[in-house]
Amino acid sequence: MKSFFGVLVYVNGYWRYAWLNIVFNIFSVVFNLLSIVTVMPLLDLLFLKSTADLHQIIAKGVPAMNSPSSLLNRVNYEIAELVLGAENVNAGKMKALIFICFAAIIFIFCKSFFRYLAMFSLAAIRNGVVRDFRNKLYDKALRLPLSFYSNERKGDIMSRMQNDVQEVEWSIMSSLEMIFREPVTIVGMLVWLTWMSPELTLFVVAATPIVGGLLALVSKTLRKTSLLAKQKLGLLTSLMEEMLGGLRVIKGFNGEKNSSGRFRKVNEQYTKISIRNYRRMDLASPLSEFLIVCIMAVVIYYGGRLVLYGDGTLPPAQFFGYIAIFSQLITPVRQFTQAYNNVQKGLASMERINGILHAEETISDPEKPKKLGTFSREIEYANASFAYSKGDVGWAIRNINLKIEKGKTIALVGQSGSGKTTLADMLPRFYDVSDGKITIDGIDIRDLRMNDLRSLMGIVSQESILFNDTIFNNIAFGVEGVTKEQVIAAAKVANAHDFIMEMSEGYETNIGDRGVKMSGGQRQRISIARAVLKNPPILILDEATSALDTESERLVQDALNKLMQNRTSVIIAHRLSTIQHADEIIVLQKGEIIERGTHQELLQKNGTYKKLYDLQIFV
Questions:
Q1: How far apart, in whole angstroms, are the C-alpha atoms of residue 520 and residue 507?
Q2: Residue 159 half-sphere exposure, CB side, CA atoms within 13 Å?
Q3: Is there a contact between 369 and 447 (Cβ–Cβ < 8 Å)?
Q4: Please, are residues 528 and 491 in contact by the beta-carbon 8 Å criterion?
Q5: For residue 362, what is the enclosing H or E element?
Q6: pLDDT classification of 188: cutoffs 50, 70, 90
Q7: Of 78, 172, 326, 613, which is the most buried if we count CB atoms within 10 A?
Q8: Cα-atom radius of gyration of the chain, to the nearest Å?
Q9: Measured in whole angstroms, how far is the alpha carbon of residue 346 from the centre of its chain?
Q10: Using the 8-state DSSP alphabet, how is residue 434 labeled?
């Protein structure tokens, strides 16, 4: 139950509604019991008791109301007065019958009204908690470092954030009503039954652990198998995400059968586990009902003996009332059992969600951040090294010593896997150095707030990351208060304005999921326009022009050259012709610097850079 109480932590801020729910449920239980107490004298007074018995009840006087039995006596007294106060006994009995019917209707109405108020107050808790839960999970996902996602399947993470959150909402939040209401109902009825007949209630309480033990056996492995089912569902989501992303490759290599086979295999495993889970859950409710009916049968037998052979401590009307109240225990006990099983199923999803919520934030803001007003001098990599995880044998980046003066352009080149992108990603703290440090104007970037650090940088990534939104919003992303004129100016610099104006709605055109409505070159230019608009002092251009055709590349490269004037730029490119203007070119191999210098200096060295350059010249 520790995990369940961990979920209830999210109820903080909604306790006012929780207490209202409990209070309204108490009133609902009270009026439900009153409706039964009102009907209890019906058989006894109207059909069994003689006129003399009724006169005897009146003769005792108005009973004090200080216990359930005295409340029952008061009801008997009022009904006896109604019967005897009429012109004849039969007319009086009809009056009493009408009174009982109206009283029962009023009490049932009050019970239903307070039950509605209880559910009304619970709606704010259920939906508010789920909203806060989603917000917290989404914000956590934004704060986690990129290294976390490198070790996880994207589809599985999506399944946790969608399917598992939905499961928590359905299984736990939807059970809150039963968790809050049914215990109040059960306790209230047991207290009332104890006042009515301690002997019978003692037997009921003694049998409760037996029922609970049998139900616990049924739901013992439910949480474990539910967790396994959620893992399989996450794998299914991953396979679907991979299929949609790689559909061109699947079709091109006739891989439909192989892809379908993998999906069907996992889907079959998920289905078998789910069937087993539902069968176990479906057994709990009828089993609990059957066990309670068995207890009721024994209660009827034992209570009947008390009525027939007892000393009058349990009158027939009170016994029938006891049976009526006890029979009402079946529904709350069954629903509470169902809620318990639902909670177990939801806690399995909660475990998977906690894998995100409790993941270590290895990259975070310092407790006492330093302030960097403006970038004025230099960026320095001081003996910087990086490994993707502590267990890695090799280093992705090793012993990098590099100074980038303000206004200079540095180009990173090397074969695929040499560490170019990783080295650039360390500057905005997408990854933190494992050893050494990176400083800006002498301040370790780990001592700066990430918002302050990243506000200094504009990034054009190797893969153009665009959102399912308008072109205007994609270019203006991350920049507040931007005007259309500024967006147009940025698009013109990136050589994007002309093709944007040819689209149906111009800058208000929706580009689809990840920009599927545009070509690769167009997506790249929108991404460049975004960086142009931000107008940062530091630019990181990762394969910035690799997706452009020759003419567009020439125009964009010319615009970038103008943009990079008096700005510090880090360029990563495989097309070495685009970086000949760089102030310094850094050649990387296996995460280490093996050559450095200007374009002409490196050509004269006749080393790795010269080989890479010659390969591209003759391709």
A1: 18
A2: 21
A3: yes
A4: no
A5: none
A6: confident
A7: 172
A8: 38
A9: 12
A10: S
Share of the chain above pLDDT 70, in %: 82
**Helix, strand, coil % in the chain, rounded to nearest 5:** 65, 10, 25
Among 354, 336, 403, 391, CA closest to 596: 403
Angle, to 10 degrees, between the axis of helix 256-309 and the axis of helix 222-245? Answer: 150
Alpha-carbon span 52 to 10, nearest angstrom: 62
Report the distance separating Cα 218 and Cα 161, nearest Å: 29
Domain borders along the chain are 20-123, 144-361, 378-617
pLDDT digits (tens, 9 = 90+) for 104-136: 899 899 999 998 998 888 888 888 888 888 888
- Long-range contacts, 340-343 (Cβ 8 Å, 24+): 340/215, 340/219, 340/284, 341/219, 341/222, 341/280, 341/281, 341/284, 342/170, 342/171, 342/172, 342/174, 342/175, 342/281, 343/4, 343/171, 343/172, 343/175, 343/179
- The answer to whether domain 144-361 and domain 378-617 are alike in fold is no
Give the architecture-level CATH label for domain 378-617: 3-Layer(aba) Sandwich (3.40)
**Apex CA 28: angle with CA 27 and CA 30, to 5°?**
60
Cα–Cα dist 331/82, whole Å: 35
Token code pair at residue 513:
């999921």
C-alpha torsion sign, points 285, 287, 293, 298: negative
In this structure, are residues 275 and 241 in contact, taking their beta carbons and an 8 Å threshold? no
> 260 pLDDT exceeds 70?
yes
Phi-psi region of 541 (alpha: psi -120 to 50; beta: other; left: phi over 0): beta
Q: Which helix (H) or strand (E) holds 479?
A: none
Mean pLDDT of 11-33: 84
Distance separating the N- and C-terminal Cα atoms of the chain: 66
pLDDT per residue as tens digits for the range 357-396? 888 888 888 888 998 878 888 999 999 999 877 655 578 8
Question: Two tokens at 426?
Answer: 């360390």
Q: What is the pLDDT of residue 619?
A: 43
Question: Following DSSP, what letter does each residue of 7-28 receive, concatenated?
Answer: HHGGGTT-HHHHHHHHHHHHHH
The DSSP code for 63 is: P
Task: Please compute, for residue 278, the number of CA atoms within 13 A of its CA located in the half-sphere on the CB side.
Answer: 6
| DSSP E strands, 102-206 | none
Split at pLDDT 50, 70, 90, the class of 290 is: confident
Query: In whole angstroms, what is the distance from residue 226 CA to residue 279 CA?
Result: 12
144-361: CATH number: 1.20.1560.10
- Which residue has tokens 């539910």? 226
Give phi and psi for 378, each to the nearest 5: -160, 160
What distance in Å separates the CA atoms of residue 508 and residue 137, rounded to the nearest whole number? 31
Q: How many CA atoms lie within 13 A of 605 on its CB side?
A: 18
Contact 188, 329 (CB under 8 A): no
Task: Give Cα 375 distance to the centre of its chain.
Answer: 39
> Both tokens of residue 260?
């379908």
Question: CA 40: distance to chain centroid?
Answer: 49
| pTM of this structure | 0.73
At 587, which helix (H) or strand (E)? strand 584-589
Phi/psi region, residue 86 (left: phi>0; alpha: psi -120 to 50; beta: rest), is beta
Separation of alpha carbons 281 and 286, rounded Å: 10
The span from the CA of 327 to the CA of 225, in Å, is 34
